[in-house]
Write a structure and sequence with these properties.
By secondary structure, this protein is an alpha/beta fold. It has helices at 6-45, 110-113, 123-134, 153-164, 186-206, 218-227, 241-247, 251-258, 262-280, 306-318, 327-335, 350-365, 388-395; strands spanning 60-62, 70-72, 77-78, 81-82, 101-108, 140-145, 171-176, 286-291, 322-325.
């Protein structure tokens, strides 16, 4: 047997290397294809669709919570500030309540959120500033704004359950607005329409050129959608039924129907029942329903929706909930000929938010739930915006 020289061995080894590389590449390609095929089967078997990064009006996104349906997107732009990491139109808060702090969580819709107002001008943040200005005995106050535009009573209470209660509030304030029983939400409908619109756009893109071959792959749709830019513009305009009723001149009839129709009224009573259970817990917070009037009540006329306010207050009391009807404070503020209190018939201006905040401070000062002597209303005279209207509101007799 002839021995092979070192040169011959090296030549054979060199010839084998390309074959080994090609074999490994073939195995790797087969493994990748097999993995993709398995992944395709899995996403189809579990009906996994593309999770589109849909953003409506810069800060609203779809929620995994089927009751909330949508939510504020953490880190998104909010005028000059951003939505907090917890998804609140507020600053960051520690989950654990600090010692020496009385904590208030405020829930509600676009009025609580503060539509058209800067964050610090919303009634929850004005309330916080006023309470800390009036605070004594070393007690500090934190007020967390959980308001989300378009939320109805069911969604507001769910937001409290899944987000608000973890902050260990001493008090929950529900800013109740008279269209809260309705199911329609402009934000939810906008997100749904944008999702459908974006899916159509992606399908059209995939049906062209080199992507056509992959257009039938659910897995590819999933990957493509996750990398796509968020959709923020809606082709078709949407209209809230409350505003539609206003245009038709039937605003009061619509509001009254919301509080008389069984399905919509059940949202209110079910929400109040859950709030009642929370308030009844020995370790739970007190709950206050603050009822906002529709538009600025005129001091010279009877408020036309007084019966609706009375029905809401009665339902709240049946579940052991305290109420604060803001009709009288707004009526007084308007009678004093101050600045405009409402931007439209639903949403207060900065001055309107101040009326709500002052009324809540006064209610808290007279409440047994706050340690005695911890709120000194005379200190509010140093707060920005304190005027004759604010003085009159603080002197107003409680109903």
């Amino acid at each position: 047997m002839a021995w092979m020289s070192d040169e011959s061995i090296q030549s054979v080894t060199k010839c084998q290397r390309p074959r080994r590389f090609a074999f490994r590449a073939l195995c790797l390609s087969f493994g990748v294809l097999l993995g993709l095929a398995v992944a395709e089967v899995v996403v189809r078997a579990f009906d996994v669709g593309p999770r589109l990064n849909i953003v409506y009006r810069r800060s609203f996104r779809l929620s995994d919570n089927p009751v909330l349906k949508y939510e504020l997107m953490p880190g998104s732009k909010d005028g000059r500030s951003t939505i907090s990491r917890a998804g609140l139109r507020d600053r960051e808060f520690s989950i654990k309540k600090p010692d020496g702090v009385y904590r208030i969580v405020v829930i509600g819709d676009s009025v609580t959120y503060g539509l058209w107002c800067r964050r610090r001008h919303t009634y929850p943040k004005q309330l916080e500033a006023m309470l800390n200005a009036a605070g004594s005995n070393g007690l500090r106050f934190e007020v967390l704004n959980l308001g989300v535009s378009g939320y109805n009573t069911t969604q507001a209470v769910e937001a409290l359950r899944v987000r608000g209660l973890q902050y260990q509030p001493d008090l929950v304030v529900y800013g109740y607005v008279l269209n809260d029983p309705q199911s329609y939400s402009l934000e939810e409908e906008g997100l749904k329409a944008l999702t459908a619109q974006t899916r159509r756009d992606i399908s059209r893109r995939l049906a062209r050129g080199v992507l056509r071959a992959l257009s039938h792959s659910r897995l590819f749709h999933l990957a493509y959608a996750s990398l796509a830019e968020p959709a923020v513009r809606l082709e078709d305009a949407l209209e809230d039924p409350t505003y539609k009723a206003d245009k038709l001149g039937s605003r009061q009839d619509y509001i009254r129907a919301l509080h008389e129709t069984e399905v919509s009224w059940r949202r209110v009573t079910s929400g109040f029942a859950e709030l009642g259970r929370i308030a009844a817990d020995a370790n739970g917070p007190a709950v206050l329903i603050a009822i906002f009037p529709l538009e600025e009540p005129d001091a010279g006329e009877d408020y036309p929706l007084r019966d609706v306010h009375d029905r809401v207050a009665l339902a709240a009391s049946q579940y052991g909930l305290a109420t604060l009807d803001l009709t009288s404070p707004y009526t007084l503020a308007r009678a004093l000929n101050g600045p405009e209190l409402y931007g439209d018939f639903l949403h207060p201006t900065e001055a309107g938010h101040r009326v709500a905040a002052l009324s809540l401070v006064k209610w808290l000062a007279e409440s047994a739930g706050v340690p005695a002597g911890s709120i000194d209303l005379t200190r509010l005279q140093s707060v920005e915006g304190f005027d004759a209207i604010a003085a009159a509101l603080l002197e107003m007799k409680s109903e």
